[in-house]
Structures
1.
Amino acid sequence: MTSKTPSEGEKPKKKNPLVSRKEFLQIAGATGAAAVATQLITSGPLSSDAIQGIGEQTHPESEGVAKHAWCMAIDLSKCIGCQYCVWACQATNDVPDNDMRWNVGFPERTESGTDFFMTRPCLHCEEAPCVKVCPVGATWIRKDGIVTMDYKRCIGCRYCEVACPYDVRRFNWEISLKENPYHPTWGTAEVERRSRGVVEKCTFCSHRIDRGLTQGLTPGIDREATPACVNICPVNARVFGDHNDPDSPLSIFIKNNETFRLREDFGTEPKVHYVRPEKEEI
Amino acid sequence: MASFDFSIPKESRERAWWIWVGVLGLFLAIGLFGAIRVFVKGLHVTGLSDQVPWGLWITQDLSSIATGAGAFTFSAIVYLFRIKKYQPIARAAVFVGFLGYTSAMLALAIDIGRPDRFWHPLVYWNVHSVLWEVTWCVILYSMVLVLEFLPIMFEGKFFDRWPQVRKYGALIHKASPVFAAIGLVLSLLHQSSLGATYGVLSGRAIWYKPSLPVMFILSAIAGGISMTLLLTILVGKLNRRKIISRELQNDISRLAGFALLAYLYLKLWDWAATSYYSQSPGATEAIALLQSTTPYTQTFWWLEIILGGVIPAIILLSPILRKNDRYTLLALGSIIMGVTVNRWNVTLSGLVAPPHWSPGVLGRILSAPYLPTWNEIIVSLGIIAYALLAFSFGVKYLPIFPKDEEAVH
């Protein structure tokens, strides 16, 4: 659009090639500069969004409510390995590709030989390595403890994947147009599918929590406000709730069970607590 | 150009030049095709995965930044510490540094998922991220390199028509000590931080150690000096003229040797303290996994330590051996190889042998394989071709190297 008027101006001068070239260069330069400037102002570093974001590490659009501390507990001795939690997550968060599961599950065996099924969502670490390393602050810990992401800010450098010791993060290696095989059996998409070139991760279904709280629901008790993986579990192996609330299902569960967290020696302070698979045998 | 003493007939020299340029151009074109393919199809055309998200291109980034470290080293030596005898190599160092950093940026632009958001680190700050600091330093330092390089460019024949521009160039050149100081600070920061990129990751035991940043800067100094000297000697040999005096070549060789020695000393203690005299469960586990699935031990000891460290250190620090240009070239090339292998080993060691987080034991034998695909390789070769092509044209048309008369005194 900007280029039209100047490029018409170069035609009549073509008889004199030298002048034309000089002028052409000037015009091309001006046009290029105008295009770059437009880009800078509309979506680039000079856009109002970007200027607002300078030096800013907060994300008012998704901060959570500070008085809550959302945590999960997974009872490995109860889990029957049906993988419903894996599929419900893929349906709800629209992850069609099995290689990109946010919530993974696989058969495992303890040192003493007990077979069990290991599942793992994002652990939403309090000292999350992924949050520390992100060069653009595209991932952060909300006031309610959930580690979340801004897919519009991520540059796709994948340093968070390198930093996370739990293999939680997933990168969109290609554009995902696949139909989700888990729809509608295991649920429907509740969040937008991510674009190519950004990292994504489990959110503890924060969209349900945020919406539920505004409706006066209690996450962990009211199904509409509880993560999909917790709801679907046929044996209640997953418990969710507010660690700050002593009466939440989670607080009660943790009080009544001996729990551990994955690789506590990393110092990451995960918010997912596990019950050992051999519990009943001991 | 005119001062070159061509002992081979001009015609065949001319032909050799065009063949060289043609071959590099071809590689550049193939690399460009590879880059376009990545942009069109996405990064799944690489061998990378969520378990090994960094590979060949990150190695190339780290290696080209490391071997571009001659720029800050010689700028500091010549313009800050005023050791004037190194002056004849300062321009070449800046030019090589400039090419190294631009190569790294090219590789990064293809490697990140959203290159259109390259400016995000400048606007969205996360001051707790090493990579954020690295990004800022690399961008600022690249500006310093451009400013250091502009006066050289303005001296080129092309700028004969604009004497005014050349005057500005001379003016910029007067500020060289300032650029040298800024460049020194920025380089000490980001060259080390690139090591810290891995060194700060507490969840990855094989990386988590404070020695990584220091080893990165020391190896970068050794690698940077080597790359600058290697190219200088090669250009001299190809053009059959003496670019730098034998005495200066000896001094620079020795400098590279000492930098290498410092690096080896730290590396020895890093290995002894973390793997020999002690063991941490995570790191020992990871190394055992690496040893059973990759040639990590061999490439570490043979390529990094023996070939890339001990042998070149002996050659460059021995007054007799370094008199031989062939040995010197071999030593310098080995150092560059060693630094590159080191960057590969550091990057891949932490990823291929991921930490074990499941409470079970079945997953303990899992390692994540990685082999670069042809698409990754052609892009990397294309970037190397870019650097060599730019270097060749720079040497041909710009006053990168001093004329014979200047070098002799």
2.
Amino acid sequence: MEARIGVLICDCGQGMQNIDFGALARQAADLPGVTSVNLSSDLCLDEGTKKMVSLIKDENLDRVVIAACSPDMKEHIFRDMLEKAGLNGNLLSMANIREQCSWAHDGEVTDKAADLLRMAIGRVRLLRPVEHREFPVSTEVLVVGGGFSAISTALRLSGVGLRTTVLESEPVLGEGAGEKEDLHGLDRGSMIAAAERDGNIDILTCARIASVEGAPGDFTVTMRTDGTETARKFGAIVLATGFRTELTPGPDALIDARELCSAGVVSQEQLLGMLSNLGLEARPAIVGFLLDLADENSRFTTLATLNNALAVKSRWGSEVYVFCKDVKVDSEGTERLYRETRECGVVFLKCDSAPEVTVDNGKVRVEARDVFLGDDAAITCDLLVAEELPFPVQETEVLGSMFGVRLDSGGFYQDENVHLYPVDSERKGVFFVGGCRGNWDIVRVLTDVSSVVTSVCGLLCPGSIQVDVEKVRVDPQKCVACLTCIRVCPHSAIQLVRVDSGRDAAVISDLACDACGVCAAICPAKAIEFEGYRDDEILAQIEAVG
Amino acid sequence: MMMDGIIVAFCCERSGYPAADLAGRLRLHYPENLRVIRVPCAGRVDVIHIMKAFEMGASAVVVLGCEEGACHHMTGNTRARERVRYCDTMLREVGIEKRTAVMVNISPNAPHKFVTAAVETSKILEDLREAR
């Protein structure tokens, strides 16, 4: 049966002056299969949508091309419009004549618009309907980790009514590394107490994950506690395993100094202890800090250094020197903190190479060339606070391969585009929060926690997930079970399953699939079809150019 | 040929496509001979798609994927890079020297880079045309 294609052209409220819409409509009407062409200027608004719904019904259209703005803007509205008119939402193709035509070029661009329209019509002829299905989901959430980020996440998730399980490998909560910087008025102890009191939060300590299977809304996690394994269902999993810190520049340069002068070189944590315990009579007269010796200083180290330098100055009144290459102030409020630190008398010595740390008469001596003074500065400190850098915790790698998520070059979990997918991993339903992704500070952790609560709610709170059924599909007749797709699938969505004929074939989980088409491109047997981006649909667009 | 002078740009819907949209919104102008084909990931672009464009007479094919290390689908962009390189080599091998296939890594918020890619591809074509 000949297709009945309806072409709807919208001028976006006369937002495209360099296209002759009359001529465009006439050109479209001459194309084979095009049953009706309509001009509109408010297609995405209620009134326009209603008109189009009745038009699709009246003209008995079976597929629709819309030439208007970018599909990134309004495609979902138009898909709903089709569904309202009784058509499958996938039978829509859009020609982006606004952002990628009218607005991108000077002068008359009707010809290009007609070309884009022809490409969309070429594609729409081949589109097939894709059905949706509702999958019920488990509304329980698993939070892996027991530090600040994990506890904050659990409290917030419980606050929106989601049952949350916190799984910590250590015997107690709150043993993370990230708590050395100012917690912005948050009290870790009372947070842990609140989590323990909360009826919506289960806390499992000394527990580890043995295996993970399944798709978003329906993960089966096997957990090991005291040698016993239990399997439980979760709808979403949040990894908040945090980070650990190491003194830098590593053992070689500083350990010697530490051995020779045990009280002379300390970590930030030791300094915090001394600040609260040391009597005023024992206070050190000169305190040095090292910062940014490796070329990439971390946000939390910068904040810890500035906060602690300020505390040393105000509580002990010592002379304070910070040896640094640069102070990076990209965390919220750090610029102000830096100014405050300088104004109260902390001296920053900016050196272009790492300062030399030696021991002289039982005291630590730091020598560096200050680039502003243009001269060598040598300071003998009573106390030298070494720089600490964040490193991934040991379980990061194991969990990473278990969950099928990538690590970055530093061994942390790879973060996604910070604007579009702030807490997402490449596996749907698995999220990251906080320092397990590396260079984080408390403000960023709190932002992450809000983002993850929003994402998890969006996924689980409706109680079911709507998925496209077989949008990407393996033809079991063509599949030769070569496992190529299973190897390359970035979202662990493909499994080998025994099909009716007694052979093995790859099967794609609709829930886990993220519709990237990597498998469709790589399949040597061309057995995988990605509806909407099938080979013939892409080729038809190319053939329609010109 | 029908498509002579046309640049076919396969744009990943998470990077190249939003970058192209943003270029339009900012009224950054680029050569009119560019035709964008939206793909879900640069890794969806297969050799057959690129070669089809050349068969139809396109002067250049640009594949725009995410920055390396930032592909939402992990390795889609690096797979695309390999395929583009393969196609470009194949063109040279069969003696088609005035056309080219180019891979561009781009962020969704980099409209200027999109324009640069379009302009530079046109420049490459010009250079190829002038070369003997």
